[in-house]
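Tokens help. Our protein:
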Amino acid sequence: MPVLQTLRCSASIQVEIVEHINEIAMRDQKAGADILETPHARKIVESKDLNHRQKTLALRGFLSELRHPRLSSRQKRFQRQIESLGLPSGARIIPPVAFEGNNWKMELSFTGPEELRKVFDSTRPLVESERLDIIFRAPGRRGRD
């Protein structure tokens, strides 16, 4: 595959790309080459502004979106919701893998006790407010509507 020569990525990433192309092609009843000939895929691979690593990352993202459109849509919606919450730097909310299950995580990053107190204190109003509920009322969250 000429595109793999252009990307110069590792063997495991090449396998991932080929598998995604094959799965999309089978689902959509197209040839694998047709997937790579879409305007968006061509734009990525032929870009003069991206190096081979950036092209690889962009193509993997594009193929992942094509392969898993619902999951990709949910990830984008989650990202917008998180951004709208205004989490302080040093705090992250991590959803369950593929948004399946109820085991969410909150991660706090800090360099010492004082910074931990600051990050923790700045997350408290958010955790105690109803703004956080927006994430758990998202479509597909059974029992939360």
In short: The first strand starts at residue 91 and ends at 94. Residues 141-145 have pLDDT under 50 and may be disordered. Residues 2-67 form one domain. The radius of gyration is 20 Å.
